[in-house]
Specification:
The structure holds two protein chains of two kinds.
Chain A: E1 6-15, E2 21-31, E3 36-40, H1 47-55, E4 62-70, E5 73-74, H2 80-89, E6 91-94, H3 98-101, H4 108-120, H5 124-137, H6 143-146, H7 156-168, E7 174-178, H8 186-203, E8 206-211, H9 214-220, E9 223-228, E10 231-237, H10 238-243, H11 248-256, E11 310-313, E12 316-318, H12 323-328
Helix pairs in contact in A: 4-5, 5-7, 7-8
Chain B: H1 2-7, E1 24-33, E2 36-37, E3 43-44, E4 47-57, E5 62-66, H2 73-80, E6 88-93, E7 96-97, H3 105-111, E8 112-115, H4 129-139, H5 144-157, H6 162-165, H7 175-187, E9 193-197, H8 205-222, E10 225-230, H9 233-239, E11 242-247, E12 250-256, H10 257-262, H11 267-275, H12 315-319, E13 335-336, H13 349-356
Parallel strand pairs in B: 5-10, 5-11, 8-9, 9-10
Antiparallel strand pairs in B: 1-4, 1-6, 2-3, 6-7, 11-12, 12-13
The chains are: A alpha/beta, B alpha/beta.
Chain lengths: 332, 357
């Protein structure tokens, strides 16, 4: 196995109160070059905060613990100048709302050129040339003309393409994607997912893709990490986790998602197997397993102490004391 | 307490036309926004949000409406609810024209209620949950105590224990709980038709499933009819008996959910189905079914509005607009607005399509 490009150990993020909120409570992540990891979770699971910690984009009131190493450098120790060089050239990020990520008063082409000039010391004309190349690469129609568009003049899908072009302008080794397709229409979402998959393969980038939609995770990722209450509760190769989920939360999430399978006719009118209750409040997380209050298999031991992440098979880890029982009742 | 609900009359007592008459029947619905009149008095640059939509919802069924942003599905809901006035078109509720002397707006709003996507924005932040729900019945002439008693009963029915939740304010609730309050409020006047406009779209998946289950239960319990609007085809298919697919202010295909799913006849419906992310890691989507974004509903393309993105587009598609054709099936009403489904249209694909059917 090649050297990890992203190596996160025991990441914790706590926002000072009142009341103090522990958004991330001990996350370990490793990513090798060229790998796509999907972080799957619901709102408040800590997935976006984890991503922002990797970019050092969290506000000052967030206390960060643990180690974050990207490309063999300690991200937490970086000074302002190093951080500025790190963002963009080593690691780049795309967001859910491209309309908010762009500066509204500059043309999109100029914003890409600026990034190239700033990071690579290139001439302005060279930066504009790179912007044009990138626009063609992300397949924006009539690219040369579109470079001079302002963000508000573009449609949602095109803005997202432009943001991908901006993120890739300095050939980052790691791309962080924070729900980049959530605000898009279905027919546009699939185009963007396929584009990202293609660019990732061509450029050999490592990608961490945050989403709440299992379908999107299936389309994009090699490996899946399911987050709940600020921790990874299950991680493994995509196929293993989707086909044979071990954690009761993952299993509940899969059974409560309406699949686009062809036998849906039989599903209609029948009740969905919903997970009872609501996700925990981060300012008052339960002791022990954060999922225990909603879990049908919870026993007394689930409500105390720290539940370890246990490896069940090669590369398939689960944070559940009852993982064996949870899978025992699977038919087939 | 549930006696209050039963005593004031459930749906069957108010049924006028019998089961064969659609509960809601809409013809020629049109709504254009904005635009300016030029020198000749013609309006230009307007958004053709809804541009001639016909629909029927039968008693006790769920009609799903699906489409991308800008297709007019939410405007259709607002027009049906009479939150905004249509430019043209007729809305019949159980045979009576809405707004006519026989069925005034206040009476109509007792029969039809709506749940919105944004559960927070649609609640008054300064009213407690019980007052929010009791407000409608009180305005419609019910006594205060009876209205509050009904609110408590409804809270219990949507899965919120009244003793814990009645006195809370919206900001003290989670998104799923707020949406339950919105549903309870919509039911407070015992409507027969409930319009659900992206009612579960903002919820987390695990909570979405709970609310969908609740909607199924309430429909059975109160004999409701739903108009279920969503951009998520999977959810629409799960909830609906019939589905209407909209594109740029027009209905392009309407039919029973199973038929639309197994044998979509409009190229847009096919593309929409193929755009749903695959749930099979070994069988991912390899090619995007459509390129580009939906066009702007200001000055939509002439002829068939989908022809700019359709791979089957022929000259006839940009020249002439296809209407929702006759029934394609034997006994089920499956209609599609595509020249390929009409052998007399002159579209080269029309003959092949007929042979297939």
């Amino acid at each position: 196995m090649s050297q990890a490009i992203v190596d996160v150990r025991g990441l914790t993020v706590e926002f000072s109160g009142p009341p103090p909120v522990r958004a991330v409570g001990g996350v370990d992540l490793t990513l090798v070059p060229g790998e796509v990891l999907a972080l799957l979770g619901e709102s408040g699971s800590g997935k976006s905060v984890t991503l922002r910690a990797l970019m050092r984009l969290l506000p000052k009131r967030a206390a960060i613990g643990g180690t974050i190493r990207v490309d063999a450098r300690d991200v937490r120790q970086m000074g302002a100048a190093e951080l500025s060089a790190y963002r963009g050239s080593t690691i780049a990020m795309i967001f859910q709302e491209p309309g908010l990520a762009f500066d509204p008063v500059y043309s999109v082409g100029d914003q890409i050129a600026e990034a190239v000039v700033r990071h690579e010391g290139a001439a302005w004309a060279q930066g504009r040339r790179r912007a044009l190349e990138l626009f063609e690469r992300v397949r924006i129609p009539s690219a040369a003309r579109r470079l001079d568009s302002y963000p508000h003049e573009m449609s949602g899908g095109m803005r997202q393409r432009a943001m991908i072009a901006l993120a890739l302008s300095c050939k980052p080794k790691v791309l962080l994607a924070d729900e980049p397709t959530t605000a898009l229409d279905a027919t546009v979402q699939i185009q963007i997912l396929l584009l990202l998959r293609e660019l990732q393969r061509e450029m050999g980038m490592a990608v961490i893709f945050v989403t709440h939609d299992i379908g999107v995770a299936v389309e994009i990722s090699d490996r899946l990490a399911v987050m709940y209450g600020g921790r990874i509760v299950e991680t493994g190769v995509l196929r293993d986790v989707v086909r044979a989920p071990k954690h009761p939360y993952t299993r509940g999430l899969l059974s409560s998602t309406i699949h686009s399978s062809k036998n849906l006719g039989g599903q209609r009118g029948k009740r969905l197997e919903a997970i009872p209750g609501a996700p925990p409040r981060l300012d008052s997380l339960p002791q022990g397993c954060t999922f225990a209050p909603r879990c049908g298999l919870a026993i007394a031991a689930c409500r105390e102490g720290d539940i370890p992440l246990v490896s069940l098979a090669a590369g398939h880890d689960v944070r559940c004391l009852r993982a064996m029982e949870a899978t025992a009742d699977v038919r087939g | 307490m549930s006696a209050i609900l039963e005593a004031s009359g459930a749906a069957p007592g108010r049924d006028r036309g019998g089961p064969a008459q659609p509960l809601l029947s809409v013809t020629g619905l049109v709504k254009h926004f904005g635009g300016r009149r030029d020198w000749s008095g013609k309006r230009r640059g307007m958004v053709r949000a809804v541009d001639g939509v016909d629909l029927e919802i039968f008693k006790g069924e769920t009609l799903g409406i699906v489409g991308e942003s800008g297709c007019g599905k939410s405007t259709t809901a607002r027009l049906v609810m009479q939150i905004i006035r249509p430019d043209r078109g007729e809305i019949l509720f159980d045979g009576e024209a809405v707004g006519s002397p026989a069925l005034g707006l206040q009476d109509y709003r007792r029969e039809t209620q709506m749940v919105f996507q944004d559960s927070y924005a649609s609640l008054n932040p300064r009213l407690t949950v019980e007052h929010t729900i009791a407000f409608g019945p009180w305005v419609h002439g019910e006594g205060r105590r009876a209205a509050v008693a009904r609110a408590h009963d409804l809270l219990a029915r949507v899965g919120l224990a009244p003793e814990r939740f009645a006195a809370r304010y919206p900001h003290e609730l989670s998104g799923g709980q707020r949406q339950r309050v919105n549903i309870a409020r919509a039911l407070a006047l015992q409507p027969r038709l409930l319009i659900l406009d992206e009612a579960v779209s903002a919820l987390d998946k695990s909570v979405e499933a709970q609310v969908l289950n609740l909607l199924l239960d309430l429909k059975a319990e109160f004999g409701l009819t739903y108009m279920f609007i969503s951009h998520d085809l999977n959810v629409v298919r799960f909830m609906s008996d019939r589905v209407m697919v909209m594109y740029l202010g027009k209905a392009v295909e309407v039919g029973p959910s199973d038929v639309i799913l197994k044998d979509p006849r409009h190229p847009y419906t096919t593309a929409l189905l193929a755009s749903m992310p695959s749930m099979d890691p070994d069988n991912r989507t390899e090619e995007a079914p459509l390129f580009g974004d939906p066009p702007n509903p200001i000055d939509p393309p002439p002829g068939c509005r989908f022809h700019t993105r359709c791979k089957f587009a022929a000259p006839v598609c940009s020249a002439r607009e296809p209407g929702l054709g006759a029934d394609l099936g034997d006994d089920l009403v499956h209609r599609v607005a595509c020249h390929m489904a009409d052998p007399s249209s002159g579209h080269p694909g029309a003959v092949a399509a007929m042979e297939r059917a």
